[in-house]
Amino acid sequence: MHRVPGGPQFVILCVHTLLFQAVTFLLRPTASYRAIELHTSSAWLGVLAASFALVPLVVALPAGDAADRYGEHRVLIAGAAIVCGSAVLFVVLADSFAGIVVAMIVLGAGHLLCTVAQHAMVANLIPNARLDGAYGYYTFIGALGQAAGPGLLTLFGPTGALPDAGAAFLAGLGLAAALVAVTLFARATSAPGRVVKAREHRVASLLRTPGLRKALLVSAVVLSSMDITLVYLPALGAEHGLTVGVVGGLLTVRALASMASRLFLGRLSALLGRRVFLVAAIAASALATAVVPFPVPVGVLFAAMVVMGFGLGVCQPLTLSWLAEIAPPGLRGRVMSLRLVVNRFGQVLIPAGVGSVATGLGAAGVLWLTAGALLSAAVTARSVPMDHG
Predict the structure, then answer these.
(1) 197: how many CB neighbours lie within 10 A of its CB?
(2) Most buried among 13, 57, 352, 364, by the most CB within 10 A?
(3) What would the DSSP string read from start to end of 326-368?
(4) What are the structural domains of the chain?
């Protein structure tokens, strides 16, 4: 058995990540189903998806700076508390689309704070030589939570077209309370206030690293594609007459495939090289995404979701480990938050834009456009020099 990287604090971080992702991936599709129940159009579903990323666009860089200055633990506590607050809002405001959007915005803010703190904690706990494997383990646990969330959703209406959203929101609140409790056991991994001088200049220099901007763009497209399928797969299921159990199963299978891609990421990356591995994985996920909207047998849908999940699961840990390598100590929180800012811009602009363009084509058109964006991302990733250092 492999020794757990980072020791007890890494284990606590993994438990936190498991709960954090389970809460998020239970609340977000439940919100989508509730919006459908309120007769929300495909275009407005795109707005709901984008609302998750609105506040993080403003608070991401300050959150990274706070993690560097005051320690990741304080940022982690704040994020967990806000996630718990969002769960309360989902329970209270679920009777209107506007209320669901407000709760989603709050969830996005809490998600951002937790994510910045977690990414910086991994970078500070693990030596550079083991970062691919460590981020593979970390994102594997995150994918496990992403599988658990939709899996829990199937308990609240496995045979109907729509789940019991109220009960699912209450379950999310219970998980969020557990998340806050676990957060209290985490500790900062570096001394608060350990910030590199001339921070602004150093971050600006990092932006000039060859291939960095392209890598950030690819990461944003991949993450937005995951969000789009999370929101529009329930809509596609409703159009094609798929039950909640089938749709929840498809999302769960996608998350499980992402887990498989990450568990042995360090070995696969060393064998193939980061860049080749990344390009092949994204291209495969693009083809799989293009298959999903067709009226194919359910077995084909599950196979496509396996390929999609495996491919999309590779991008995040590889870009995270590369950024952690090139970021100096004392700047890691801010550098990771820079990546999140770009991702959040993608999460705001891409789903809303795709939803508007494909309004007349329904959920199928949205997913086909998403497949095209992923194929473009695979081509872009070919020029990112990730295998040095």
Answers:
(1) 7
(2) 13
(3) HSPTTSHHHHHHHHHHHHHHHHHHHHHHHHHHTGGGHHHHHHH
(4) 8-381 (1.20.1250.20)
Per-residue pLDDT of the chain (389 residues; tens, 9 = 90+): 445 556 788 888 999 999 999 999 999 989 988 888 888 777 788 788 778 877 777 888 888 888 878 778 889 999 999 999 999 999 999 899 999 999 999 999 999 899 988 988 887 777 766 777 788 888 888 878 877 888 888 888 766 667 788 898 999 999 999 999 999 887 766 545 455 554 554 566 767 777 777 888 888 888 888 888 888 888 888 888 888 888 888 988 887 888 888 887 878 888 888 888 888 989 999 999 999 999 889 999 999 999 999 988 888 888 888 777 777 667 777 778 888 888 878 877 787 777 777 666 778 888 888 899 899 989 988 877 776 55
Cα pseudo-dihedral 332, 83, 9, 324, rounded to 10 = -20
What does the alpha-carbon distance between residue 71 and residue 188 come to, in Å, rounded to a whole number?
5
For residue 47, the tally of other CB atoms under 10 A from its CB is 19
Among the listed residues 252, 232, 352, 244, the one whose alpha carbon sits nearest the alpha carbon of residue 293: 232
Spatial CB neighbours of 39, under 8 Å, sequence gap ≥ 6: none
